[in-house]
Amino acid sequence: MIREATVHDVPEIRAMIRELAAFEKAAGQARATEGQLRAALFGEDPAASVLIAEDDGTGGVVGFALWFPRFSTWTGTRGMHLEDLYVRPGTRGAGHGRALLAGLAAICRERGFERFEWVVLDWNAPAIAFYESLGAELLKEWTVCRLTGAPLEALAARAVPALG
Q: Ranges for the N-acetyltransferase domain (predicted)?
């Protein structure tokens, strides 16, 4: 079963984020607290949304997909960015990942989103094969850029003060 997350899912969402980070060999980087997630997902101005996958037999939470809207200047339309897709290892292969992605695609269709995009680690061959089996196009000519920590602060320090 796929459903929208509720505030009561925050502990499970946080646990799965940490499990995903461990799988991606970056456990120390998953620092989000339950309070931060609660505010980001269910606060006054939510930053993202989450779908939850539950096992039909046990009712246990087996996966999640966290996404947020984005905008394309080229098409002049909104799209969806999938930040995290995770299915717990013991439940993989049962269709939960496909069901989560289908649920997200349905949201795209309902809201008129023309693009549904995400990134995948280049060493995650099973995920790449799965995404390609769905018809996803891997954009090999694009590279993700990121500024964090000291480089982000150094660049921000060079900003010209706003004219008032």
A: 1-158
